[in-house]
Design goal:
Keywords: Flavoprotein, FMN, Oxidoreductase. By secondary structure, the chain is an alpha+beta fold. It has helices at residues 3-12, 26-36, 56-63, 88-102, 107-121, 126-150, 163-169, 204-207, and strands at 48-53, 77-84, 154-155, 177-186. The protein binds flavin mononucleotide (FMN).
């Protein structure tokens, strides 16, 4: 992709406040999630899951915990990114197995990797694990927004929700998951107040420092 194409995608996308009634085909949603999975993550661990909610009754229950943001109900699909709160040692062991299946390296290299990762992450307690997983999920969000734009899928990244209530409604605790952010996706409605508005961004002088 050329830079100009990328720039036009970045300008095409915006945080949609009102979706039309059009729905996105499931194979497109599957592709979007697959592309999101190609996002970079620390150590490659991808310590999060993407939960797809298509059921209107569940969306309705979540709307009650979304500070009146109607787009949580009125969308094609609602995606919830949740932090993987299962023990990091197990996540690392799973990753090393996947790594072995994809690379042909000496056994010693795998065991050094495993020990190095376990050592680097051993200090993370519950809250810091959540924060770390959340950072990785936000990185995947960036990939998702760009991937969605490339497929002409609209989205709104959202953290303005009661995350603990989402965990309850979705019964995430027994799955060792905790809500981080949500992304309703669909097709923008032409009456959306934000449609066609110009971007508000820092000027290069404010964004950029050269040392
Ligand atoms: C992490 C994150 C959380 C956000 N939470 C909300 C939200 O709860 N509700 C909302 O309407 N927009 C939310 N936004 C959208 C931002 O307001 C929007 O991305 C920003 O104003 C820039 O505008 P643009 O994305 O339309 O270019 C969120 C964006 C991000 C990245």
């Amino acid at each position: 992709m050329h830079t100009t194409q990328l720039e036009s995608l970045l300008n095409w996308r915006y945080a949609v406040r009102k979706f039309s009634e059009q729905s996105i085909a499931q194979d497109k949603v599957d592709k979007l999630i697959e592309l999101t999975g190609l996002s970079a993550s620390a150590f490659g661990l991808q310590p999060y899951k993407v939960i797809q909610i298509s059921d209107q009754a569940t969306k309705q229950a979540l709307l009650a915990h979304s500070y009146g943001q109607q787009k949580v109900l009125d969308n094609s699909h609602l995606l919830v990114f949740a932090a993987d709160m299962s023990p990091l040692t197990s996540q690392i062991e799973r990753y090393i197995q996947d790594f072995k299946a994809n690379r042909d390296l000496d056994e010693l290299v795998y065991s050094q990797m495993e020990h190095g990762m376990k050592d680097a992450l051993k200090a993370l307690d519950g809250e810091s694990q959540y924060n770390w997983c959340s950072e990785q999920a936000h990185l995947a969000l960036g990939t998702l927004l760009l991937a969605a734009a490339s497929m002409e899928i609209d989205a709104c990244p959202m953290t303005g929700i009661d995350k603990a209530a989402y965990d309850e409604v979705l019964a995430l605790s027994p799955l060792n998951l905790k809500t981080v952010l949500i992304v309703p996706i669909g097709i923008r409605d032409s009456s959306d107040v934000n449609a066609g508005t110009s971007k508000v961004r820092k000027s290069k002088d404010l964004l950029h420092i050269e040392v």
